[in-house]
Amino acid sequence: MPPPGDWPAGAVNTAVVPTGHAGRIAFAKKGKIINGWESLVEYSLIKDKKLGFGVGDIDVSYVDGFTYPILCTCKGVRLSGCYDNLWTQGKTCPEENGQGACKNPHRMKKDIDHAHEWFKLCEHKAYTYSKDDQANSNGKCQSGTVECEIMPGKP
């Protein structure tokens, strides 16, 4: 895993994940506190009992909140995420924390089946509510490197 810290524009980091590992990486603005409202890349490499080897899975999540648009691909094919910068869509964030993050009003609500209006552009591309399962890569990349690009965030 890349260590916590600043990633300059255009930086590339590599994470090698052992079978059985799952986790997530949060993206916040330099010098800002990570408070649970950030854009996330979530990943796992779980051994599939039928196949006998590790099956990778990855998704971009805005369920807790949004800081940056993120898109993850494998060999040029979109796995999860979207390039839509929600800060520039002309709508008001429902709850901004003053640290460059917008809290998702649908977080922690298990009975919701749609994205909040502010997160709608990324619905089904990135997780925008807890059951937005179309945003999951579902093991689509088993023979390549997953690349996640973080786009510029709030202007």
Automatic annotation (TrEMBL):
SUPFAM superfamilies associated with the record: Osmotin, thaumatin-like protein (SSF49870)
Superkingdom in the source lineage: Eukaryota
Record's protein name: Uncharacterized protein
